[in-house]
Amino acid sequence: MVPFTGPPLTSESKIMKIKGLSVHNSGQRTSELMANFCGQYLNLTIATYDLNDWKQLLRKWKQKEAYGNLKAVITCTLQPNFVLDFDVFAAEFDLQEWDGGRRPKNYRLDTTISHIQSEEFDCSKWFDMQQEGGGKWASIIIIKLQLNSSKYMDCSKWMDIQQDGGGKWASIMLSQTIIQFIFP
Length: 184
Prior knowledge:
Elements: E1 20-27, H1 30-36, E2 41-47, H2 51-62, E3 72-77, H3 86-92, E4 96-97, E5 106-109, E6 119-122, E7 127-130, E8 137-145, E9 159-162, E10 169-172, E11 176-182
Parallel strand pairs: 1-2, 2-3
Antiparallel strand pairs: 3-11, 4-7, 5-6, 7-8, 8-11, 9-10
């Protein structure tokens, strides 16, 4: 794995105009990537960001200042201290519960990113937000994955640990927060 290095990124950087961009271990460059992306699909794993990065992206989209081509942003952070007060966040962006009259229940994500397979999402538990002036609708979900708290658990990446003296085995993993923002 090669570290993601180089000069600061701007919206004019060639990499920011790629239709589908996926950066594994985006780390400290996550804020730059989120702030300057001009393509359609952005996937950032092992991302290091704070809530303000997401607020900036959502605010600019909602006010139609940027992200006009955007179809999906998916981030995954392993930051154990990532804190989100969902009620405050929902009020700030006027998030609304899904309504079948506003948009379909299912959304098929077909990215141009080779290692991300097409996937159909049931968005009935997601929250919707609308651009100002009666513009486009988008959907957002925030998933906090921890031990025994999500049906999406894949234990194959967990680490096993055994008690001293040949005792019991246990499996552990880092918690992660996944935020998905799509435009059905």
